Amino acid sequence: MEKTELHVDATCFLRKTYKIPSDVDKLSQLAYKCDMNTIILYATKYGATRQIAERLAEKMGGAIMHDLRQGDAPSLDSFEFVILGSATYAGSIRKEAKTYLSRNACSLLEKKLGLFLCGLEEEKAKENIKTNFPQELLQAARAVSLLGGVFDPNKASAPERFMMKLAKKHEGYWNTIDDSRIESFVKNMKAV
Ligand SMILES: Cc1cc2nc3c(=O)[nH]c(=O)nc-3n(C[C@H](O)[C@H](O)[C@H](O)COP(=O)(O)O)c2cc1C
Questions:
Q1: How far apart are CA 137 and CA 120, in angstroms?
Q2: Best of 44, 88, 123, 126 to mutate for ligand 1, by most ligand atoms within 8 A of CB?
Q3: Of 79, 154, 156, 181, most Cβ neighbours within 10 A?
Q4: Confidence (pLDDT) at 2
Q5: What is the pLDDT of residue 28?
Q6: In angstroms, how far apart are the furthest CA atoms of the chain?
């Protein structure tokens, strides 16, 4: 199987491709067997963070992807590179990402780590990175960046559309996902 064929959600990967139960330990064993050395953990509401995670996976040369809303993440033992990213809402990352970071800081410190935000507020990116990711992880990470975001009025709720309008951010569809930043993020991750 090609490495690139494994750019799939962890649970689907196990259930559909290998027809085995969704078992997080089996996932790390499989990753090890397939020589898959990157895992991307992400927390999304409407899917933009997953889109970024998919592009990162492709540029990393293949990765196991895990949606933090879908329960326990697999053990990090067999992975050399770990990338964690979350959508930003009202200045905060998703609660699943917060919980994961606080419970797994020690294991993350042992990895080649990348942290990213998905969001639209360029001017607050530095502040949002500083307030949402633990200081020790920011210092240890090889790559830290805001990689852009998407606002789709057709997916957003009425209050969300209202809030975006109030903040004078945007009214229509807006996509700032930035491929050149994704590329330099991956370059930093792989730097020797
Ligand atoms: C109500 C609301 C609040 C938002 N707050 C922020 C914010 O504080 N900072 C930011 O950079 N982007 C903010 N955004 C933009 C989202 O981060 C962006 O739409 C992102 O792509 C969402 O990711 P997701 O599709 O993975 O959930 C906000 C969007 C909405 C609808």
A1: 23
A2: 88
A3: 79
A4: 45
A5: 59
A6: 51
Q: Is 121 in the pocket of ligand 1 (CB under 6 A)?
A: yes
User: Residue 73: which of 53, 47, 111, 43 has the closest Cα?
Assistant: 43
User: How far does the centroid of ligand 1 lie from the alpha carbon of residue 8, in Å?
Assistant: 24
Mean pLDDT, the chain cut into blocks of 10 residues (192 residues total): 44 46 55 76 98 97 95 92 97 97 97 98 97 98 98 93 81 92 98 89
Which structural domains are found in the chain, ordered by start? 3-190 (3.40.50.360)
Tokens, residue 151: 């606002």
| Ligand 1 and 44: CB distance under 6 A | yes
Model-level pTM?
0.86
Ligand 1 centre and the CA of 23: distance in Å? 31
What is the per-residue pLDDT for 72?
86
Separation of alpha carbons 74 and 109, rounded Å: 16
Nearest CA to ligand 1 atom 6: 89
